[in-house]
């Protein structure tokens, strides 16, 4: 499967990443990406930028090194009510909003509580995708959550970093199960490198291998073409991005 969008990347602004957005974009061009999502950590993550940082992504050109730039965030799931750490006035500045569990922000609890949090994140309607769900510290009812994600058109991330054994150790088993069940249910999948250094931009081989293992149709992988990704944003109720008009079809 060919992937042309990386929907989960970090810059120096996240506090524990090591590259600038220019370096990330240059790597994206070199590796053949057409769209790059900038998804630095939202404010509750230790070391993350102030919320004005996300508003000010409007100063970013829509193209850097000939790669389209998607203004995004990796928000933190805060509680079982499904709240995330973005102010309401932030959403109008952002194209792409992911939500993830992070141990410093949401202390691992029971499977029931994790499931409740994810269901409420989905139902709150503010999040376009759920990030690195394979983390064994945050077990949840996979079938229930993925069915809800399908009903609300929320994408499920296949996080390449989770499959490398370098972070969230033990995620590979649950990621496999998530993709298997997600294929059966018919969810939308997205693919993220979770790069914290520019050379990891577009490193998606493990994610692609897992999607191919279960023969997930390209039509269900929103990062397989620019039109699928951008039209997914329209499905989510986002405004059309005029600078990307030629990438919608």
From TrEMBL:
Q: Which cofactor does it need?
A: Zn(2+)
Identify the keywords attached in UniProt to this record, alphabetized.
Hydrolase, Metal-binding, Zinc
Q: Where does Zn(2+) 2 bind?
A: 16, 41, 196
What's a Pfam family in this record?
Answer: PHP
Binding of Zn(2+) 1 occurs at: 8, 10, 74, 194
Q: Which InterPro entries match?
A: Phosphatase_YcdX_put, PHP_dom, PHP_phosphatase, Pol/His_phosphatase_N, Pol/histidinol_Pase-like
Question: Which parts of the sequence belong to the Polymerase/histidinol phosphatase N-terminal domain?
Answer: 5-79
Write down the Gene3D superfamilies for this protein, in alphabetical order: Metal-dependent hydrolases
Which residues are recorded as binding Zn(2+) 3?
74, 102, 132
Q: How is the cofactor bound?
A: Binds 3 Zn(2+) ions per subunit.
- Extract the PANTHER family matched here: PHOSPHATASE YCDX-RELATED (PTHR36928:SF1)
- Please state which protein family the record places this protein in: Belongs to the PHP family.
- Under which name does UniProt file this protein? Phosphatase
Organism whose genome encodes this protein: Vibrio panuliri
């Amino acid at each position: 499967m060919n992937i042309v969008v990386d929907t989960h990347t970090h810059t120096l602004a996240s506090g524990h990443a090591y590259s600038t957005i220019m370096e990330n974009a240059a790597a994206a061009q070199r590796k053949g990406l057409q769209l790059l999502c900038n998804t630095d950590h939202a404010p509750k993550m230790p070391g993350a930028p102030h919320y004005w940082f996300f508003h000010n992504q409007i100063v970013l050109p829509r193209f850097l090194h000939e790669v389209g730039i998607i203004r995004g965030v990796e928000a933190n799931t805060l509680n079982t009510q499904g709240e995330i750490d973005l102010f309401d006035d932030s959403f109008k500045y952002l194209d792409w909003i992911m939500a993830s569990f992070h141990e410093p922000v949401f202390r691992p609890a029971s499977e029931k509580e994790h499931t409740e949090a994810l269901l409420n994140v989905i139902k709150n309607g503010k999040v376009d995708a759920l990030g690195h769900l394979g983390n064994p510290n945050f077990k949840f009812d996979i079938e229930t959550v993925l069915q809800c994600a399908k009903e609300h058109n929320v994408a499920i991330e296949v996080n390449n970093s989770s499959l490398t054994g370098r972070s969230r150790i033990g995620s590979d088993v649950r990621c496999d199960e998530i993709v298997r069940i997600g294929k059966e249910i018919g969810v939308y999948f997205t693919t993220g490198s979770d790069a914290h250094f520019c050379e990891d931009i577009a490193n998606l081989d493990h994610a692609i291998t897992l999607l191919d293992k279960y023969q997930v149709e390209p039509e269900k992988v929103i990062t397989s073409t620019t039109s699928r990704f951008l039209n997914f944003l329209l499905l989510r109720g986002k405004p059309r991005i005029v600078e990307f008009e030629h990438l919608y079809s």
